Amino acid sequence: MGHLADVTVRRAVPADAEPLAGFAERSFRTTFEADNAPADMDDYCAKAFAVETFRAELEDPSLSTWVARDGTGVVAYAQLSRGDVPDCVRDPCAVELRRLYVDAGWHGSGLADVLLHEVREAARALRSTTVWLGVWERNARALRYYRKAGFSVAGAHRFVLGSDPQRDLILVLRADAASDDTEGP
Predict the structure, then answer these.
(1) Consecutive 10-residue runs of the chain (185 residues): their mean pLDDT?
(2) The model's pTM
(3) Rounded distance, CA 155 to CA 98, Å?
């Protein structure tokens, strides 16, 4: 496990697109590949993790992305989005935690908590009192982390991976709620 003292967390910039896209795809595949069809994984990853996609996201003013790096490269990232809010989230000004991925070697280090803190601070700066996210109902590790971090289930929605419709749970957290010690997804 890495040590937080060896990590730098900062806002991502367009020049981070290539290393972020590579890390994002590796993390996504590591997390979900065993439970999904290869064709669905390949289709989704080709679109979601293209360098051009990440560059556009990093230039999009409605998104905020943080990157965590150690001496070897990207080890985690988080992304916050201002946009559409699902009906089951009662705060129309809520912001979405679109992504929070931590390299397996950093699980349990507290790095996810550092990134979640950045997300919550940004939500407060946007005058949003609620952070919401969608997480696959079969992602037990992430569900444990988010519950421990104070998120609660508000509903569900459909997420399509390639050609496979899946069910994501919608979780919510008050942005100004006290945080506790948690271990990352």
Answers:
(1) 85 96 97 96 96 96 96 95 94 95 93 95 93 97 96 96 96 75 48
(2) 0.91
(3) 16
